[in-house]
Amino acid sequence: MPPISDLATLLRSLQPELHEGIFVFATLGPGQQVDLAELVAMVREPEGVSVVVAEQVARRLGLNAMFRCGWITLTVNSDLQAVGLTAAFSTALGHAGISCNVVAGANHDHIFVPIERAAEAMAVLQRLQQTDLAQEAR
What we know:
InterPro entries: ACT-like_dom_sf, DUF2241. Residues 4-69 form the DUF2241 domain. This is ACT domain-containing protein. It is a single chain. Helix 3 (85-95) crosses helix 4. This protein has one domain: VC0802-like (2-Layer Sandwich), CATH 3.30.2130. It is of the alpha+beta class. It has four helices and seven strands.
């Protein structure tokens, strides 16, 4: 299926999935490395390389977990140039008082939320998807 850019279609097709486990954001120290197979995400910043990995990987490597989170993937194939998707789901989560950190992959958006709010975040995203469907049916 080709990437979707229409916001209404994207919202109808969110299909969020919560990955099993606990994930963490951490910064690698000088010379420290992580096997690419263990990475969820990586960003090079002036302060160092930020990574998202499973909590057990961070423990094994002695990384300081800065944020313990649940990892939600929006399984809709979103176009990297689509407008409004991040704003829609981050606003919905914000109204529920749930912080989110977003990483866009080439095909999907990945949302990291506080681990203790992950189930609630899933419910918010599912309501967002259903609300859009209900509005379109009118």
